[in-house]
Each structure stands twice: as C-alpha cells, then as structure tokens.
TrEMBL record:
Enzyme class: transferase
GO molecular function: protein-lysine N-methyltransferase activity
Alphabetized UniProt keyword annotations: Cytoplasm, Methyltransferase, Ribonucleoprotein, Ribosomal protein, S-adenosyl-L-methionine, Transferase
Location of the protein in the cell: Cytoplasm
The name this protein goes by in its record: Ribosomal protein L11 methyltransferase
Binding sites annotated in the UniProt record for S-adenosyl-L-methionine: T145, G166, D188, N229
GO cellular component: cytosol; ribosome
Gene symbol of the encoding locus: prmA
Species, as recorded: Rheinheimera salexigens
Reactions it catalyzes: L-lysyl-[protein] + 3 S-adenosyl-L-methionine = N(6),N(6),N(6)-trimethyl-L-lysyl-[protein] + 3 S-adenosyl-L-homocysteine + 3 H(+)
Length: 294
C-alpha cells in the first residue's frame, strides 16, 4: 500500500495533543522525531519525554484527503499564527522484507558471529548466534551491542554464570552461553523482550540454560559476569541493583552510554569497582570493571 507522511513541527508541550489529533483524523501510525538533534535518553518505566522542538510524524493512506487534515490543523488555536509542516510520499515497500534483506551476519572478536535466522551461516566452525530480534532491541548492528559482544568474546570462560540486565532480544546472554557460560539470567522491563529472548534461546538450543525475568520477579544471585546495555540514566539510578549481581572479583560491562556521560556512570560505581580504560565506538562507550574483593 502507498503511504503519505505528514511531518508537523511543534513543541514538547503540544506533541501529544498533535499526535492525538492526527490519529483522530485518520493517521494509521504516529511517531516523534527531534527537530534539532537534541539528545534524549531512556526514560524510566512509565515516563514519557519529548524534545523541546518535536516533529510529530503521521502516516496516512495515500488516498486519504490530506487537504482536509491540513485545514483542520491550521484551525487549531496554537497553529493559527503559522503551521510548519511537510507532506512526503513514501515508496510502496514491504518494510519487513526491506529490513530483513539489510540485516546481514556480523562478526565480533575472534570467535563470535551473529546471524539472522533467515540467512546462511558464513562460518559453521565459528560460535554462531542465530537471531530474530522481533520487537526487542539488540541485533548487533548498534555500537552499544557490538561493544558488549566484542567484550564477551574476550572474557567468557567455561562454567560461568552471567546476568544480562536489560536483555532485549537475548543476544548478549545467548552469546555468553554459546561462548561457554553455564547459566544466564536475563532481566528486562518489557514482556516483548522476555518473549523474544525466549524464542531466540530456543532457536539456539540454549533454552534450558537461560532464565528470563521481569524486574518484579528477578532473583537474588551473584554472577561471575554482569552485562547491562541500557542507557546512562538508568545505569546510574540502578547502580545498587546491578552491582549486587556481581560477585566479589567478578566482571561488569556497562553500555548504552554516550562519551559525554561516561564519567557520571563511572562515578556511580567507583566505590565498588576498578575500571578498565574506556572503549569508544561512534560516540558510544563501553565501561568494563572488576568488583573489589573485600
């Protein structure tokens, strides 16, 4: 089906109201974009944050009477002094197929490959993670995930217990098991992530070694390795919870952190951990550390 995209410039105070209006006037979907490339970080559960200058994007059927939608917007009180908008035709594509066609096998470190479940394995002798992320974050294409995968390839030893905090698609925990870990505990606030992780674990024949929990059900344990690829704000706020999972002398990796945020996150953990040099990729960093043995 061909589509038309309407982009409306507004403010954070009006973004949700504009979204509701577009949905009421026939938009099939609505999303939000930053008008000025201002960074915005992961909100806490239940929190919604918009940019100061927000673009509300409505997706409409190409046959929809867009002149009526524009006229209705122009009559909205806060747009009467000027409505900034743009209409764009979108190419008619099978968007799911487009995404699948552009997700290729990726190598991390010396041993590890992540392979889309619908593609051939490039190296059958390597450690291969077969992945279908579904709606959950984590394909290996984002620098934060890539940094964590490279680290796991270096540090995982046989029989270790690993906690994947913010497991998303399950990519990190499954990689740890494929690299030799004995047990993985995955935790995520999103039920869709728990579902995706479970399906990917089955796909990789490690379902019996991974335990998946929502935060309210998370167990108490101390692990050899803990990896948390979320974002800087939650990493700092959840320091006590995350650090409690690391046994004395155990290893910790934190990612989802911009270079400018690294010192804040390190400061939050400095009382219990000794940090390695920061590793950076495309303005994102990975922090790794060892927990002090008392």
């Amino acid at each position: 089906m061909p589509w038309i995209q309407l982009r409306v410039n507004t403010t954070e105070l009006k973004a949700e109201q504009v979204s509701d209006m577009l949905m009421g006037w026939g938009a099939q979907a609505v999303s939000f974009l930053d008008a000025h490339d201002t960074p915005i970080y992961e909100p806490m559960p239940g929190e919604v944050i918009y940019w100061t200058n927000t673009i509300v994007v409505g997706l409409f059927d190409a046959e929809h009477p867009m002149a009526e939608v524009i006229s209705q917007l122009q009559n909205v009180s806060f747009f009467k002094h000027g409505l900034e908008y743009k209409l764009e035709q979108l190419e008619d594509k099978d968007w799911e197929r487009e995404w699948m066609d552009n997700f290729h096998p990726i190598k991390f470190g010396e041993r590890l490959w992540v392979c889309p479940s619908w593609r051939d394995i490039p190296d059958p002798t390597a450690v291969n993670v077969m992945l279908d992320p579904g709606l959950a974050f984590g394909t290996g294409t984002h620098p934060t995930t890539a940094l964590c995968m490279q680290w796991l390839d270096q540090v995982i030893q046989p029989d270790q217990t690993v906690v994947d905090f913010g497991c998303g698609s399950g990519i990190l925990g499954i990689a740890a098991l494929k690299l030799g870990a004995k047990r993985v505990v995955g935790i995520d606030i999103d039920p869709q992530a728990i579902e995706a992780s479970g399906k990917n674990a089955e796909r990789n024949n490690v379902a019996g070694q991974i335990e998946l929990y929502l935060p309210k059900d998370q167990p108490k344990l101390e692990a050899d390795v803990v990896v948390a690829n979320i974002l800087a704000g939650p990493l700092a706020d959840l320091k006590n919870i995350i650090s409690a999972y690391v046994k004395p002398g155990g290893l910790l990796a934190l990612s989802g952190i911009l270079t400018s945020q690294a010192h804040v996150v390190m400061a939050a953990y400095a009382d219990e951990f000794t940090f390695d040099p920061i590793v950076e990729q495309e303005e994102w960093v990975r922090l790794t550390a060892r927990k002090v043995e008392l």
